[in-house]
User: Which sequence fits this backbone?
């Protein structure tokens, strides 16, 4: 059974915004300009309340010709998140653990 695990604020999904073109401003390393260091090795979005749609949960599902169920969307999102966490060597205490 699927169990949703909320964001750990590891920042992995914000470390490659340069790959989506000029949608968001990014630093020299490709990470989002608005990503800042938080407590306990977390990464915080400094414009979270005002972030663009592309950074919001569910945005990509609205772009599909046939949107998928919320459970399938969350499953795919979390699997992608885990891949990003591995790619960027995110500390274990910030990694998703459901899969």
Assistant:
């Amino acid at each position: 059974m699927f169990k949703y695990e909320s964001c750990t604020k590891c920042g992995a999904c914000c470390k490659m915004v340069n790959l989506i073109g000029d949608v968001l401003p990014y630093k020299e390393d490709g990470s989002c300009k608005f990503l800042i260091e938080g407590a306990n090795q977390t990464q915080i979005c400094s414009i979270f309340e005002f972030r663009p749609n592309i950074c919001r949960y569910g945005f990509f599902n609205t772009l599909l010709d046939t949107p998928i169920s919320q459970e399938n969307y969350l499953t795919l999102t979390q699997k992608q998140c885990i891949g990003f966490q591995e790619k960027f060597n995110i500390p274990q205490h910030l990694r998703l653990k459901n899969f």
Summary: Residues 12-89 form one domain. The first strand starts at residue 35 and ends at 37. DSSP finds two helices and two strands in the chain.
